[in-house]
Amino acid sequence: MSGFLLVISTTGFARLAYGVLMPFMQADLNMNYTQAGLLATTISLGFLAISPVAGVLALKFGMKKVIMAGGFLVTGSFILLSFSNSFYLYTLIMFFCGAGSAFVFSPIMSLLVIQFQKEKGLVLGVLLSGVGSGMLLSGLMTTYLIQYFPVWEWRAIWIIFAIISIIVTFLSWIVLKEPGNRASNKDDRNLRVAHVYKNQKIVRVGIIYFLVGVAYLIPILFQTSFMIHSGISEKVAGSLFSISGLFTIIGGPIWGMVSDKVGRKKSLLVALAFCVMGGIIPVVNDHIISFIASAILFGFSIGGLMVLVQAMAAERSLPYLVPAVLGFVTIFFATGQLLGPFLAGAIIEQLGGVREAYVFAVFIFVTALIITSFVSEKEKVVLEP
């Protein structure tokens, strides 16, 4: 439960809630779409810069210490976001917000995957359902609570995030236990970590994760704006953002359980196909029903993408190297997150609408689907002791 709550606060709030808060921040801070996209990109830059470091530090100092550091850093970032008025300062704060998220993301996944070896998919699914929970809660709070703060408005939401985050971090400090390290000695550990970075099977999984990172944030960040510009009210758009988050919560555990039974590859191919459909539907017809269908497909599928790719990567690693492996493939994921929002913002500015950004996301999902089709289900641990 503490791991689930950590994912809510350090991924759902820290990295994804900006999507639903973005229109309010744009209006208040007079940002254009390129600047708004840049802030999202900066979050991903912080996540990218720290992800490989987080995996190595988790092996050296312990996963729990690294996780706690990330939780406190995210909390501090939320507090600063609620008080700043400078776009440049926001850019710096967003970097630290992404960095704190990285300190938590891979280590918490690794800690629990190591403890539940036979149910990797289910465990990752439950943990990553915290992403959707964060989307759901942020959508609800923004839609229904912001009206009670006429002066602070969106800033009050960041303060609420900070309060939740600090409570969850202290709870995790009490509950989480450090697993044993199976590395025989320091030299062996360093040799194995180096081998992780050279293994082509793990790199291929990383490339798929990169493409997922590029594409999945586009509907999350720009869905609300797409709907508003299509004539749908802000309240309905915010509610639909929450519905998408609800399906992400449901999707994670379901995809995890299914993949434990039928395999990661088959499950990932279907999830990517759903994402392609979710992107095409509102492009063809921007009616409210199309957005509902898209939100459900994206929410349910995105809830599984990270679960399936991380489980696929973890299966190709010895247990004690899972933090390094997940940290390594997360570099690819974070690089995609870094590029995706910025490219989407630029596409919107240059080509005239969010519709074109959705087309770009569909193209990336199709590419990921093609590469996934070449992955072998028979690949298991490729780092032999």
TrEMBL record:
Location(s) in or outside the cell: Cell membrane
Membrane topology type: Multi-pass membrane protein
Principal location class: membrane
Domain of life: Bacteria
Keywords, alphabetical: Membrane, Transmembrane, Transmembrane helix, Transport
Pfam families, per the entry: MFS_4
Domain Major facilitator superfamily (MFS) profile: 1-379
Ranges that cross the membrane: 35-59, 66-83, 89-114, 121-144, 156-176, 202-224, 236-256, 268-285, 291-309, 321-345, 357-375
Name the record gives this protein: MFS transporter
